[in-house]
Design brief:
The protein has a single domain (about 5-115), classed as Transcription Regulator spoIIAA, CATH 3.30.750.24. Helix content is about 40%, strand content about 30%. It is built from 5 helices and 5 strands, in the order ββαβαβαβαα. The protein has helices spanning about 25-40, 60-70, 85-90, 105-110, 115; strands spanning about 5-10, 15-20, 45-55, 75-80, 100. A 5-stranded mixed beta sheet has the order 1-2-3-4-5. The N and C termini lie far apart (about 35 Å).
Length: about 120
């Protein structure tokens, strides 16, 4: 399955919705889309992973790169609706706590009032 990416906004947050497989072949697309979203929309980024059908460890470097860029720009990265298969990759690698995770975009906005007030 290919990777589908779309960006919307929720307040001051850019929300990048991801669907499909994230692997060695598609991970760079995710990184490029995240960079574009934070340059055009907001320094605060939410990755909605609810429709991700597969993710391998090659995506971890991309997630850390996205996180590093958002933090250096004074922003934040949050993961939303993390499916079991993605959570498993994070857990097996010991990275389940490396990224703030939430059930919904609304929870991210509520949990980070400083970003919401930007």
């Amino acid at each position: 399955m290919s990777l589908q990416l779309s960006t919307t906004r929720s307040g001051t947050f850019a929300v990048l919705s991801v669907a499909g497989d994230i692997d060695l072949e598609t991970a760079a697309q995710l990184g490029d889309a995240a960079l574009a979203a934070t340059q055009q929309d907001s320094r605060h980024l939410v990755l909605d992973l609810g429709e991700v059908t597969f993710m391998d460890s090659s995506c971890l470097e991309v997630l850390f790169s996205i996180q590093r860029r958002t933090v250096l720009a004074g922003g934040s990265l949050s993961l939303v609706d993390v499916p079991r298969n993605v959570l498993r990759v994070l857990t097996v690698t010991g990275l389940q706590d490396a990224f703030p995770t939430y059930a919904t975009v609304a929870e991210v906005v509520e949990a980070d009032p400083a970003a919401a007030a930007d």
